[in-house]
Amino acid sequence: MASPSDSTQVIPVINNKGGVGKTTTAINLAAGLSRAGARVLLVDLDSQGSASLALGVPRSKQHPSSADVLFGEAPTEAAIRQLDGPGFDLMPGSIELADTDVRLAQVQRRERRLSAVLRPLRDEYDVMLMDCPPSTSLLAVNAVIAADAFLIPLLPSYLGLEGIVSLGEVISKARDSLGYVAPVLGILLTLVDYDKEGTEQIIAQVRDHYGDKVFDTEIGPDVNLEDAPGYEQTIFEFDETSRGARQYARLTEEVIERLRERERRKNESSSSTAGDVAQSAERDTNGTAPRPNGAPDAPDVAAAAGPSASR
Ligand SMILES: Nc1ncnc2c1ncn2[C@@H]1O[C@H](COP(=O)(O)OP(=O)(O)OP(=O)(O)O)[C@@H](O)[C@H]1O
Ligand SMILES: [Mg+2]
Hints:
Elements: E1 9-13, H1 22-35, E2 40-44, H2 50-54, H3 66-70, E3 81-82, E4 89-91, H4 100-103, H5 113-118, E5 127-131, H6 138-146, E6 150-154, H7 158-178, E7 184-189, H8 199-210, E8 214-218, H9 223-227, H10 235-238, H11 243-264, H12 274-284, H13 298-309
Parallel strand pairs: 1-5, 2-4, 2-5, 6-7, 7-8
Antiparallel strand pairs: 3-4
Helix pairs in contact: 1-11, 6-7, 7-12, 7-13
């Protein structure tokens, strides 16, 4: 079956922490899903435009971009590029995304702009992935509100756990505005290096704490994943036999399986929700979060994550 789900799934790849593999995951999962036959749109929501650059859309060609669409300056369709090699479509990001909080300040229902502009595309795609910026800005809140499910890359390190705490804050904001939040599709452990001291222990704690929200697949360090963007290729085009390609292919299978499972259980209340992650984050502030031995207590994690990540 080409489509993993009966209805279009809008899935932000999101974590307020920088450098955790959001862009790498968004690109290669988009490629994996499209190879599996799904119609995929990747929306670049990062003002750095990293996903767009990595897919061969230079800054000079990033207009119209997702910023133009969000600000109502271009029709949604005009911003979509068909990428022949990777096999999916891209709505590029651009530097103007950095102005989102200011540009949308006076706009009514500004938290729901993204949701509104993507709505007409729901007939055209099976999956819309979003590469989110590492912030708790209005853009991230828009992504959370537009979401049908979240994919959260997580670095198995003490600092990596910080990101999930401040993500809980964004999710809580969205829940306050919407009254509900989308479920977590999965937490993806990225850049997992078992040669690094403490990795095994942190992963055990993360898996224990977040249970089956954590994907079985883990993405290890692979220089091919780092090099592929320089050639404007996804990992499958760059080296299909690489470890990174095999791991992202496995992640794709898991994602498809979870989307199908969600479809089966659509209206069951037992599914885990992003609210659970928010609650976990809230619990983290009470000191029950997984943390490596010798690290400061979780309240310090929340304090460190809060102010620095909130702008
Ligand atoms: N599994 C991996 N193996 C090796 N390098 C990786 C891997 N995943 C990501 N990288 C590299 O690590 C860096 C950060 O990854 P990426 O850009 O995907 O993170 P990000 O979360 O999108 O960062 P930002 O928050 O800045 O947008 C990049 O140089 C990327 O090529
Ligand atoms: Mg990125």
